[in-house]
Amino acid sequence: MTxxxxxxxxxxxMVATVQTAPPADVQPxxxxxxxxxxxxxxxxDEPDLSSPEAIVAATGSRSAENAVRxxxxxxxTSIGREVSGLYNRDRVRGFSPVVAGNxxxxxxxxxxxxxxxxxxxxxxxxRVGPSALGxxxxxxxxxxxxxxxxxxxxAAASVLIGYNSWHTPSAEIDASLPVSSTLSLGVGxxxxxxxxxxxxxxxxFEGAFSAQWQPSAAFTIxxxxxxxxxxxxDHGPLMVPTGDFLPPRLPRRQxxxxxxVRGGDTEAIGGVLADWTIxxxxxxxxxxxxxxxxxxxxxxxVIRISSPDGxxxxxxxxxxxxxxxxxxxxxxxxxxxxxxPRTHQIHVAVRGRKAYRRFxxxxxxxxxxxxxxxxxxxxxxxxxxxxPQQDDDVSQWTGGIAYEGRWDExxxxxxxxxxxxxxxxxxxxxxxxxxDATPWLYNLTAAVQLGGGITVxxxxxxxxxxxxxxxxxxxxxxxxxxxxxxxQFDAGVRMPLFGDMRMxxxxxxxxKPYFNLDANNRFDVLGDVINRGVEAxxxxxxTPELSLVAGxxxxxxxxxxxxxxxxxxxRQPVGAIGQRFELAGDWRPGFADGLSLDMRVSHRSPEIAxxxxxxxxPVRTIVDLGGRYRFKLAGNEAVLRVQASNLxxxxxxxxxxxxxxxxxxxxxxxxxxxxxx
Length: 677
Prior knowledge:
- The protein is mainly β.
- Helix content is 3%, strand content 56%.
- It has four helices and 36 strands.
- The chain has helices spanning 52-57, 67-70, 97-100, 562-565; strands at residues 77-79, 82-84, 103-105, 108-110, 121-127, 143-148, 156-164, 169-178, 183-195, 201-216, 219-234, 238-241, 262-279, 282-305, 311-319, 322-339, 342-359, 363-371, 390-407, 411-428, 431-437, 440-451, 454-465, 484-496, 502-517, 523-541, 546-560, 579-587, 595-604, 607-608, 616-617, 620-633, 636-645, 653-655, 661-663, 668-676.
- The strands form four sheets. It has a 22-stranded antiparallel barrel. Strands 2-1-5-6-3-4 form a six-stranded mixed β-sheet.
- A hairpin with a 2-residue loop joins strand 32 and strand 33.
- The model is unreliable at 1-44 and 49-56 (pLDDT under 50).
């Protein structure tokens, strides 16, 4: 989380995120007119329901979801089930914005234990580089912005049913129900009976509710609730070699472990969003959120492989019931006024969170020697000997003052100062360890238009961010780690190419403490990590029939500190990928009305897999191929979507922590039908 009791910003140009136009047959969602008139709204961090993403992802328009055509750049966009771009919520510039706590709901601070599903989220955007300019509270690791799906003023519904080649059925329904001229309700439900790549099952059901009340053009309030129940969650094997080698590849579609290594949980997120135009040029935005997860059963199915032939020792670590929860939110008052070609905004904001975790008390069960290339021997369920659990309480209050000024066709300058008050208490009841921090933080960003649509930008920002939770294979598994101070410098250029195609290219450096497994298998600080890199994006329609999203990231990560100097830690962090390339295209042939074909190619260089840097996950290139057919079904808009992921069934591994692996999923073909009413 980027903390701050005071954030001051000055701005002179917002570099607008370029977005492709929605399909001609997509009508604006009724929810658009539920907001105050544009002249009365602050443009920064305000939910823009007139954007293509909002229109296409609105209830009643889901058949037009297409992340390639609606993406503004190649840095990461998801709309419904559709995804495009170089980054995602788990990896931006070598780090995870979600782990760092840099998540927003319609621009307002949110501390997620779990995030709302697509029943409530219409689109997810990764904000880095120029797409992050203008935010009153930037973050060094980037920001994951969840755009809320607001119920509209006309009755509408979308239904989706799907199935894949691993025999996973799924269904989704969303509806918008106007009650009166000022009140609209949104309801949704979903079901997935997942059968995974390793024959594990994850069977879940969810429901969602929202209500948007707008008694006047100046005031809107929107409470919501999203609950997800997982009845069966099989825990597949995590392979951890004891030496400097990769494990053998497990046969795909085969579960390795006893049948009782499974669990379930209940996830819930609720809250309220409110916007109030107090007077002309004055806007108050408030978001209050509660996110929690109650785990009824959880196991870590770990195989410590001692030989490249797959021989090793299997252990199942059982947890007692676990509970994780966080209450968070933000209140922001904005004053906006014009001065000829210049626009000024002053923000005053307060953010806070109160988080709690109950963890530990595990029982380690030795299942004996196994070979992962054979069929697992069934073992009867044991009697567990669970121990006492630890508590983890975090309290953080932040707030800010921000000034922004924009000068048309000249540029933007923003500067900010922040202060954070962070308190963490962790341990067994009566024996808690305290960690406190009250850092001052700052941010400085500038952008200048050079003419011809070319804009150069640069900035520096510091933050107080989360460092995540100790992974499954660690001795202190599930322990929440302390907040850390981070900093980032970046600069680049944005320019038009031809037509509506746009390019963004930039350089960056992100610095933060380096957490990983130490000699005692504890997940702890081992030094500092510095990620320097270059990133580039090209996005937009090449012709009316063909749209393209292409991205590249070149990263030169480096770990520093005493452990590196003594040879205990390698010079690159675990998970470092030096080169990433993404190319996605969507083609609508003029000779076949309603048909579109799409392809995505993802390439990445080897990934550092161990703390000593002696093992890497090999290079891989994955190709996805799909198509859509839009048609009328009983007079309603419909689309049939078919897609093959990992078309050539590329072999490999997924890294799940230092020296911990699962198998890369093979080819899976999915088909789903979406109908709008």
